[in-house]
Design brief:
This protein has about 400 residues and is of the alpha+beta class. It contains 11 helices and 19 strands. A 6-stranded mixed beta sheet has the order 8-7-11-6-1-19. It binds ligand DP6.
Length: about 400
């Protein structure tokens, strides 16, 4: 390895994912092994994703990381586990153009600079750790020429954050809980790609939250320790639901999909209530959105909207198709209008063509009023994000998108 001041870097983009059958509870806290399988949908990275640049240079004196522009410590065991696992699989890297050769054995001595950025507000409480750890592992695997398939990489990302393993694929993804003690079979697999069910439209209502929420990590630990409902869920309920959900996804059966998605979200929150002390992730606005969707689905001949809530009050609504999504957006904007000083551009993010089609002029059509029922109190939504099922991680070839300076390896 020559001792000049070269910097080699890779930039990758990785999507976030939303579980439709939830992961809640670990059987091994260190390796992050779950007590049940889970299934998620990957969101279009154009709307929600993490961008990460990883770089290596003989001039770096220690591993460093910047998250959304701020330097953070890499000393936590989750980062350390991911870095160790990836380094141990690193291989020779040769860049003939630049005349750089890194041998397999060099990786142990070389240090890394990592910069990561979310294209959505971090404070939104949207699974940022999922996209973040998946992107870190994916980008490092490319930089270090790690010869593993995405499922094997998912087992490394899993050790950063459980839900991260599902962000290594696009479309619909299943995380097999696995049986082995070392976690080598606790990996994610793709069920179908993002083209399989591309009618779906996903609308996220980012709901303002006043309370500091219990983190998923400590929440699920408390549920494992205290909730009998969680034991029943993991043993009896989820195994059946997983099979039914796989069928529903394979057949694009929106009626079953909605039933399973909503029931599973509700059971997850029931488990939180059954935890001692109880954990409340949803708030009044979340509950109002559930009522709205339940009423809507009852008034339609077949269900048109599924809802799911993670460890926070935000609603993730999955509309059967674009026509339903446009109507739903009209109903949502009627019930949760932006504050007078908020313009529509900052109130509806992502695929804004939906809101354009929804049209904001004039009265809400009676048909939609009938579907949402009387919604007299105004709720508190900070903003909406419109998205759809999306692809898995990609390497970005355009060097101008790198978050680190190509000569210094420091944040731009
Ligand atoms: C409610 O993956 O954030 O979003 O593994 O401790 O990092 P750790 O937890 P995390 O938990 C996600 C829980 C969930 C459901 C899900 O994504 O399946």
């Amino acid at each position: 390895m020559a001792e000049e001041k070269w910097v080699v870097m890779v930039t990758a983009q990785t999507p976030t994912n939303i579980a439709v059958i939830k992961y809640w509870g670990k059987r091994d806290e260190v390796r992050i092994l779950p007590i049940n399988d889970s299934i998620s949908v990957t969101l279009d990275p154009d709307h929600l994703c993490t961008l990460t640049t990883v770089s290596v240079s003989p001039s770096f004196d220690r591993d460093r990381m910047w998250l959304n522009g701020k330097e953070i410590s890499l000393s936590g065991s989750r980062y350390q586990n991911c870095l160790r696992e990836i380094r141990s699989r690193a291989d020779d890297v040769e860049d003939n153009e630049k005349g750089i050769k890194i041998e397999k054995k060099d990786w142990e001595k070389l240090h890394l600079h990592i910069a990561s950025h979310n294209n959505f507000p971090t404070a939104a409480g949207l699974a940022s750790s999922a996209a973040g750890f998946a992107c870190l592992v994916f980008a490092l695997a490319k930089l270090m020429n790690v010869n593993e398939d995405p499922s094997q990489l998912s087992a490394i990302a899993r050790q950063g954050s459980g839900s991260a393993c599902r962000s290594l694929f696009g479309g619909f993804v299943k995380w097999n809980m696995g049986e082995k003690e070392d976690g080598s079979d606790s990996v994610a697999v793709q069920l179908v790609d993002d083209k399989h069910w591309d009618d779906l439209v996903i609308i996220i209502a980012v709901v303002s939250s006043r309370e500091k929420e219990t983190s998923s990590t400590s929440g699920m630990r408390e549920s494992v320790e205290t909730s009998l409902l969680l034991q029943h869920r993991a043993k009896e309920v989820v195994p059946v639901r997983i099979l039914q959900m796989e069928e529903a996804i394979k057949n694009r059966d929106f009626t079953s999909f909605t039933k399973l998605t909503c029931s599973d979200s509700n059971q997850f929150h029931a488990v939180c209530m059954d935890t001692s002390p109880p954990i409340f992730y949803m708030n009044d606005t979340s509950h109002r959105i559930i009522s709205l969707v339940e009423k809507w689905n009852r008034s339609a001949s077949t269900p048109e909207i599924a809802y799911t809530f993670d460890a926070g009050p935000n609603a993730v609504l999955i509309a059967r198709n674009r026509k339903v999504a446009v109507e739903l957006m009209q109903g949502l904007l009627y019930c949760f209008p932006p504050k007078p000083d908020t313009d529509m551009k900052s109130y509806v993010l992502g695929d804004t063509s939906i809101v354009k089609e929804a049209g904001l002029e004039g009265e809400l059509p009676q048909g939609i009023k009938d579907k949402i029922g009387s919604q007299d109190q105004k709720g508190e939504v900070s903003y909406f994000i419109c998205s759809r099922p999306g692809r898995g991680p990609v390497v970005l070839q355009d060097q101008t998108q790198a978050l680190l300076h190509p000569q210094t390896g420091l944040p731009k």
